[in-house]
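Give me structure tokens for this 124-residue protein.
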Amino acid sequence: MTWSSTGSILMALAVILGAFGAHGLRNRLDAYSMGVYEKAVFYHFIHALGLLVVSFLPKTGTFSEFATNWVCGLLLAGILIFSGSLYLLAVTGNKMLGAITPIGGVSFIAAWLLLAWFLLPRRM
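Here you go.
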């Protein structure tokens, strides 16, 4: 599977989970839990789109496969850990899940900083 297909699947999954939250969970979650769920969907969307964009950079000749693998891997980890833990927190109410959410946030931050690093011009 390529990063482009992974990003596309993650985008579709974000739409599915967003629609499920809006229609299937609206009357089942309290306002706090719905806010948590919506935050998970939002970050899922943004970072899946980022993964999709980064996956095309090697095709432009501006980015290496090595860099792409690192940045996309960190974005994927962030979606799974950050958004995944928030989805579960919202649905189960288990606040212990919130303890791992920051690990996903750090993965997002690392991905964006690494992207910037790899895009810096190299002077020889």
